[in-house]
Amino acid sequence: xQFGVFSVGxxxxxxVTGETPSEAERIRNVLAIxxxxxxxxxxxxxxxxxxxxxxxxxxxxxxxxAVAAQTEKLVVSTSTTLITTNDPVRIAEDxxxxxxxxxxxxxxxxxxxxxxxxxxxxxxxxxxxxPLALEHYNLLHRLWRxxxxxWQGRYRTPLQGFTSTPRPLDDVPPFVWHGSIRTPEIAxxxxxxxxxxxxxxxxxxSEHSKRLIDFYRTRFEHHGxxxxxxxxxxxxxxxxxxxxxxxxxxxxxxYFDEAPVYGNGPRMEDFARQTPLSxxxxxxxxxxxxxFRETFGDYQRQLFLVDHAGLPIEMVLExxxxxxxxxxxxxxxxLDALRPATVPDAPTHASLVKAKYGDAEPRxxxxxxxRGDNVTGGSPYQDTDExxxxxx
Amino acid sequence: MQLVVVSGGTSDPSSTRMLADRITAxxxxxxxxxxxEVDTAVVELRPLAAELASAQVxxxxxxxxxxxxATLAKADALIxxxxxxxxxxxxxxxxxxxxxxxxxLIAVPTVLAATAGTSRHALVxxxxxRSLLAYLRALTTPxxxxxxxxxxxxxxxSDRVDRAAHxxxxxxxxxxxxxxxxxxxxxxxxxxxxxxxxxxxxxDTDLMRLATGGPSVVPPVRPV
Lengths: 392, 224
Prior knowledge:
The structure holds two protein chains of two kinds.
Chain A: E1 2-7, H1 23-39, E2 44-47, H2 60-69, E3 75-78, E4 81-82, H3 88-101, E5 108-111, H4 118-121, H5 129-143, E6 149-151, E7 159-162, E8 176-179, H6 184-193, E9 196-199, H7 206-222, E10 233-235, E11 239-241, H8 245-257, H9 268-274, E12 278-280, H10 282-296, E13 301-304, H11 313-338, H12 349-357
Parallel strand pairs in A: 1-2, 1-13, 2-3, 4-5, 5-8, 8-9, 9-10, 10-13, 11-12
Antiparallel strand pairs in A: 6-7
Chain B: E1 2-7, H1 15-33, E2 39-44, H2 49-58, H3 63-73, E3 77-85, E4 88-89, H4 91-99, E5 109-116, H5 124-135, E6 139-140, E7 145-148, H6 155-173, H7 176-181, H8 206-211
Parallel strand pairs in B: 1-2, 1-3, 3-5, 5-6, 5-7
Antiparallel strand pairs in B: 3-4
Helix pairs in contact in B: 1-6, 2-4
């Protein structure tokens, strides 16, 4: 089981001091948070993507490459990568490069994005968001698996003889999670390809996420990737931890009360009762997090939101100490003991290489001399003869 | 049949609830004459006020609101009664319907009722409640019931109550709801919602084919 944190990269006013960090400060802090995530023994750092203030997270692969360079074991991921407004060709290229420079310590999570004005900035239309996401992913999936792609669709310029470079590390595509709240088509696509499925699982009662996860599990089995229990599920979560329950409540309340999304609405106690949020002692956070498994079944990845609502960096780092020091070790032990041996871990680059090649050497594509295109010649790579033959 | 009564009255006793009760009583009489067995459930909105305010900002229904929505989703016939404030439907009533799934009331026969301090608000039920319920695809009766202070002692109010009750029972007895829902007509449903059949997933669609690597679909709306 993997544990980690996810952030959306918001630059939010600290409601206690009234100060808003600069973009520069927040970006530096996010790097510090990522380093701390590894230092305290967590596995994953995932970062969001937004293209409008008050966010600074427009360029996730640049940031994640820096994180990968400053860490040794941490898996970097996204929460989420916009499969709608990004060109799937650029996603294929950028994330394959991230995969190479991180030594395979990466995966990504796709989402549609729900900020309507962002779509036209990138030449798209939010009313087409769902078919756009589905079509883009079908293309992305091919770009990482076929050396040469001919493709025609509705939302992007056709491709003739296109090769996405670099080819994925060891010719093994990055693992993909699909994030969705209540869209069966997205869960179906994740299940069809045998990809992971992630429920944000922060702002709504667990029941809201459960029905779609159950659907994904059923369809994962239907499409022949394993049993429903073996489907690859990730969950979000939100916690604020202190030595005692009272201290956690007192310290988090001013941030909760003015948090974007749910602030100035429900009481913190009600919201914590109704949603996955836990505010309390390490034991209380452990107990609540263990209920996720009871609701959703054994799952592979748990990400916590810890750096939102204008929490100052010192508090976020302290939260990570408590999470990594007191909460996650217990969760690991308890959840590993409960999980049957037949339920797999989340795929990693190493496990995917092993699954594809066994003990054989992974493919290392070497390009032929540049011809400027892939239409007129043979294969762009030395180890294949056929123009469109991926050495799978 | 399940009759659900939604009342937005806030005082006790409330004239809105009293009007809803008068309509309910006539519906029960007429249903009995028609040989229909009726269970009545009343959703009082006042106790939900704080949760409704919270739901406006969180986007999900807290427990008591969720229970009220679940009750609404079982309705075979519905009475909605609102007080008129500032020439409009009460904010409480609007707040409630704002968080109700948009597919729970499809083809549900519905009587609209409103109370006000002055007869100058007489069209609020028809001009505001009717469009709200039309958006939710409920089937409103031709007669709505409006009661200003001066109407309470008149036989005209009783006549309108009776007429609306009659219309509701005719629609309910004909089981128009089931007939419309089953007519092979596909209504847009929100997956995971409270509506009957909300978890049924259609696989024979362009989008599902696209989700499983199929061909691109013709968009329902052209990109701007």
